[in-house]
Specification:
By secondary structure, the chain is an all-alpha fold. Helix content is 64%, strand content 0%.
Length: 249
């Protein structure tokens, strides 16, 4: 696969799957404003994914469309990070997952806005405005959990401990990523890792939360290897396209 297409899919797939997880929370937020906020974040993410899928389809020039890339691939052909596909469980898990990924997206898009690839730079610049709000919101929730009740702190702590094992994968570069980095196209994940660590440490300090130590890390999403949860997500996402394969959206 073309390195640029593969890199595009890594970004778009992660945004699409995370948006699907957030959409599952519609009508389940703790109050109406937050319910709407989760839905809006999901829409921002799927909007970014759509533009990247359409551009990837143009590059492939094989007759496929952005919708084909989003909804008509097999499980092993999706390259999203495994963290994005983890289930919501409770609101603390949803927001801790969101905080980890918002922080990652903020620094990733900051670097991609400087990319020599004009399309990536434009998408990153536009999406960065939205992700800045996403990160502020999820950071505030982390602090709210940590400084709320004993129960809210416990739930946030449990979520951090359960989800931390998926965080290192965010900074493991794929072959496509490394190929494009030499050309000034992809982002430097080592730099992003340092910035991510600093932000997480800052918010954890304000939230009375602790970083897990020496926790086993899981990888594989960027190689098409996923958790047991992914198949269920895909069966929901692809239901209509499988039932009506000739439908035009």
């Amino acid at each position: 696969m073309n390195s640029l297409v593969k890199y595009y899919l890594e970004i778009a797939d992660s945004a699409l799957i995370l948006s699907h997880r957030l959409a599952e929370n519609s009508s389940n937020g703790p109050f109406l404003e937050e319910d709407l906020a989760c839905t809006n974040v999901a829409l921002d993410l799927i909007g970014m994914a759509e533009s990247i899928y359409n551009e990837a389809a143009k590059i492939q020039a094989d007759g496929s469309t952005g919708d084909d890339l989003a909804y008509r691939r097999s499980e092993w052909e999706y390259y999203n990070n495994v963290l994005s596909e983890q289930p919501n469980t409770d609101f603390a898990h949803l927001m801790v997952r969101q905080f980890f990924l918002d922080t990652y997206h903020y620094y990733l898009l900051t670097e991609l806005s400087k990319s020599k690839n004009s399309f990536l730079a434009a998408v990153a610049t536009k999406s960065l405005k939205e992700v800045t709000y996403h990160l502020r919101r999820s950071s505030e929730w982390m602090i709210r959990f940590g400084n709320g009740t004993d129960e809210s702190l416990k739930r946030a702590t449990d979520a951090v401990n359960n989800l931390w094992r998926y965080t290192e994968e965010l900074f493991k570069a794929s072959e496509a990523d490394l190929d494009l980095r030499d050309k000034g196209i992809s982002a430097d994940l080592e730099l992003i890792k340092k910035e991510w660590d600093a932000k997480v440490n800052e918010v954890f300090y304000l939230s009375n939360l602790k970083r897990p130590e020496n926790q086993f890390q899981l990888f594989g999403g960027k190689d098409g290897k996923h958790s047991e949860h992914f198949g269920y997500i895909l069966s929901e996402m692809q239901y209509l396209t499988n039932k009506y394969p000739e439908a035009q959206w």
